[in-house]
Amino acid sequence: MLDILIWIAIVVLFMLSFVGILFPIIPSVLVLWIGFLLYHFILNANELGLSFWIIMGVFTIILFVADIIANSYFVKKFGGTKWGERAAAVAVIVGAFITPPFGIIYVPFIVVFLIEMTQKRTAKEAFRASIGSLIGFLSGAMAKVVVQLIMIIWFFIVVLF
């Protein structure tokens, strides 16, 4: 009976990790890791080997930087300045705490627009860089979905086979 409850908790945690992509108040990576650790420490301590933990560590690092890198990259690609790139990276973090989940969308958009305008850019150029910030967020979110899916699938492959 305990095994069934733990498995239900693991599956719920894995699903909750995807909710955390849009609601950063829920730490997606931490939720995933709690699921892994529940399995390891309560169900089977011998199943998940060192290679599993190393690979999950690498994927965790990728998840942490996905938003920041994607946002900066697309601001630059859409004509933003270095200041716009840096501001986008900081604004993603700040926006996550202002009004989750929407703060991670509109705060970088507004901040990049304002920064670009102070850099003597036209409104059109500033708006274009802000669009890059929005595309960066969406790209980062999609990357996080893919990486989290890979992590979960890897977990089930290791556990079931």
How is this fold's topology laid out?
Blueprint: H1 2-22, H2 28-43, H3 50-77, H4 82-98, H5 103-118, H6 123-160
Helix pairs in contact: 1-2, 1-6, 3-4, 3-6, 4-5, 5-6
Share in β-strands: under 5%
Number of helices: 6
Distance between the termini: 23 Å
What ranges have pLDDT less than 50 throughout 5 or more consecutive residues? none
Helix content: over 70%
Structural class of the secondary elements?
mainly alpha
Average pLDDT figure: 90
**Main beta sheet:** none
Q: What is the β-strand count?
A: 0
How large is the radius of gyration? 19 Å
What is the N-to-C succession of helices and strands? Answer: HHHHHH
Task: Write a concise synopsis of the structure shown.
This protein has 161 residues and is mainly alpha-helical.
Keywords for this entry:
161 residues, 6 helices, single chain, elongated, mainly alpha, 84% helix
Could you explain the architecture of this structure?
With 161 residues, this protein is mostly helical. It contains 6 helices and no strands. The longest helix has 38 residues, at 123-160.
